[in-house]
Amino acid sequence: MLIGESRVECLAVHRVGNPARDEGLQLSERTAVVNDEVSSLILDGYLKGIVSDKKKFQFFHDTDLNLNEVYHYSRQFFRGELGFLELSQRLARHLYARSQHPNISAGDVLVILFSGLSDAHSTQRALGVFKAEIRDDFLKVIESESVFDLQHVSGINPRLIDKGALILEQDSTVYAVDRLGQQAKFWLEDFLHARRVPDVQSSSQMMTRVLEQLSGDIADPVQQGRFKDEFLALCRRDEEVSAHELSAVAERFVEPASVGEAFDSAAQSYGFALDEQARFPAHSMARRLERSLCKVGIGHGLSLLLPPDMSLQAVNAERASDGELTLTLTLFPQSPD
Questions:
Q1: GO CC terms on record (predicted)?
Q2: Has residue 1 been placed in a domain?
Q3: How confident is the model over 238-285, as pLDDT tens digits?
Q4: Do residues 296 and 154 both lie within one domain?
């Protein structure tokens, strides 16, 4: 998405509290006045900071996408059925209704209409929804004749997005940010109701996490070492590997039900389910697995960090009469093929 020719067309600001703490909702009765300086800050901060493939999500609903409130309101606006101020007020009311968690802070909500966004095919508009929960402190220099004084001021830093969304006109894509969302993921899950759009990097990270979890579930250190060796051999053999191929290897060491549970757990953390036909660059995946699967538990509370070119063949433990423990490890170099 190219944003170099983008412009700020309209802006409205509302203040959204937390109803669980008896904080109110204050709706502006008109749109805000935006001069060139403010417009430049918004474009360079909010818009530039949110357009990234790593922040790409899609609206969804369990039964009908049109029942997703944010998606529905934005479609009404883009079709000309809803005015901008009314749209911004509906979004603020919806956000207020979803702000029930005790960890959700009050904040100022900026609803912004952008124009001039483009891709390879067309130019389109987009709606930005940004919630500023933290105000930054600044020092302002005040000049009066030949005297300079300092005054404390606080304000919103548009280059530091607390919560944000950019809703595109032409499809269900939404770019989203929730910098403070570790404790209460309401912005993505309750307000936007959006799921991450998987890319190669996030899918590879998710696959690596699943395999790392499964490796840790293997009690036998030799089998755990072979688990790593099998995956590295697969990734070194082909240019690409699929999630299905990696899962099939995992199921030779771990029960299929456990493999499914690991994928389900990762899907909850990453916000998307991994398609079994998803494909990964094999050499890149091999490098990830070399780092993540190098740790092998050898019992007795000990772990071994194996170089990628070494394979664990056997672990023998002998305990002497005085309690002294001797571990003998048998290692073999792996073939570069």
A1: nucleoid
A2: no
A3: 889 999 999 999 999 999 999 999 988 888 777 678 888 888 898 888
A4: no
